[in-house]
Amino acid sequence: MPVSERQLAAFANTHAWRIPFDTSPRHLAGPGDGRHVTHGLAAAGWQRISDPLSPEIVLTSPEGRHSLQFDPQSVTSAWWRLRAEPTRTEPGWYAEFGELVPAELLAALTDALTAPSPDQHTDLFQKLRSANWQTDAQNTAHSPDGMCHIERRPARNDNGARFWAVETCEPGHSTPRGRRLWHAVFDSRTPIHLVNAFVTALADPAPLQRGMYDRTAHHSVVQQPSPLTPEQVVAAHTARLDAVRAQTRTAARRRQPKPATAPAHAGAARPAAHR
């Protein structure tokens, strides 16, 4: 399901009249435009299998193992759900995200999902410390403003495994945390490079772009006029889709089995029999 010219034009039309504002910190920027996620997956070959006239969106990967559900009518606090079915060699896993999770953070994760898996994984907590987050005993990290928290929590009935939980909360009054604004949960089997992609995008100090009247997660968010023009915002979106298509082709080539090489003596021709 490639992104059509009509869909790109609709995205451009949405952003053409908006004056972009640099919005930070990222965890308070609000949901933004969900097409950062859906367009990226479409560029990677994912297909929509849900009713086109329903507000619910369900996309599946080309091989059918992964699915992403967006349900703005969800009766729970999770509006986005990402699933991977188990295979003979890999376990299944699950991740969910709340209504106000910034779309750019989820898009960073889905981009990593469609890209070739990295050979090495960086230390997530070291990355957070480099971004001035406070870490406690290697299991908890807190954003500089104290409103976003990342934890490794014990998973139930999973032999001591831990899952990742991210929560952005209002400041507490006589309590460690106030009302929860949004959350993200990655079960214990979620590939660590996907968690890394999400957290790296979350801790990035660079602002996100939001329109003047876009919904944000909290009144303490900081917004300033962006040096970017609406045209540059749209151009960056288009360039990212091109990059997703390219990395998807690379990942597909890596998954292809290598042709078997014939034994060295197999190519030697036998002499013709004489009659």
Automatic annotation (TrEMBL):
DUF317 domain span: 60-118, 142-208
Region described as Disordered: 247-275
InterPro entries cross-referenced by the UniProt entry: DUF317_SPDY (IPR005523)
Ranges of compositional bias, category Low complexity: 258-275
Transmembrane segments: none
Full protein name: DUF317 domain-containing protein
Protein's organism: Streptomyces yokosukanensis
